[in-house]
Amino acid sequence: MADSLPALLWAGLIFTIPLTLLSFTLGLALGLVTAVVRLFAPAPFAVVARFYVWVIRGTPLLVQLFVIFYGLPSMGILLDAFPAALIGFTLNIGAYSSEIIRAVISSVPRGQWEAAYSIGLSWSQAMRRTILPQAGRVAVPPLSNTFISLVKDTSLAAAITVPELFQTAQRIVATSYEPLILYIEAALIYLVMSSVLSALQGKLEQRFARYGGFLEARA
């Protein structure tokens, strides 16, 4: 339906895209902290980080959203739909991205740490200037895939009443009684967004590959 397209695009612009960007940004920061804690922090902190990752990776995202939005009010914690979705997606992305970041940091050869220390860098300076730039190149493809998956996963926010793209389609279906057309229309919008992001991912990977080749040539 031609008149439904603007409403779906508007919902995507106002809710789906901001929810995706905010969740991924905050989740990536949380994932980095979690990965560093698991790799380098004292045992008690590492245990807490492992427990967080274990819980989030072991439970469905939809259940996590329901616990936050519908469960926490029983404890006196009331959240609007959008903040609840943001917290849920951030925690989910944080757990999964932490595993990616932990793996790529661990993949950096120990000699890089030793080289950084040999020129007088502190641990934080070595991490920031030597380890993370190298790990970042390796992390781009899996983190990009996580971001693209998040775009589609935001449709689950419809279950907790966030008026994003998919719930807007559901609302229009309730009045138009044309579910096939509306849901295909929503699916095509998700497909376009994912395709654009996939193309950007390819360009980003090529750029990092050239940067990596330049560093190897200099070495």
Order of secondary-structure elements: HHHHHHHH
In total, the number of domains comes to 1
Major sheet, described briefly?
none
Structure class = mainly alpha
- What is the CATH H-level superfamily? MetI-like
Distance between the termini: 58 Å
Residue share in helices? over 70%
Q: What's the β-strand tally?
A: 0
Poorly predicted runs: 213-219
The overall pLDDT, averaged over residues, is: 92
From the 3D coordinates, which CATH architecture would you assign? Orthogonal Bundle
Task: Report the principal-axis shape.
Answer: flat
Which CATH first-tier class would you pick?
Mainly Alpha
- Tally of contiguous helical segments: 8
Q: Measured on Cα atoms, how large is the radius of gyration?
A: 21 Å
Binned strand content: under 5%
| CATH structural fold name | MetI-like fold
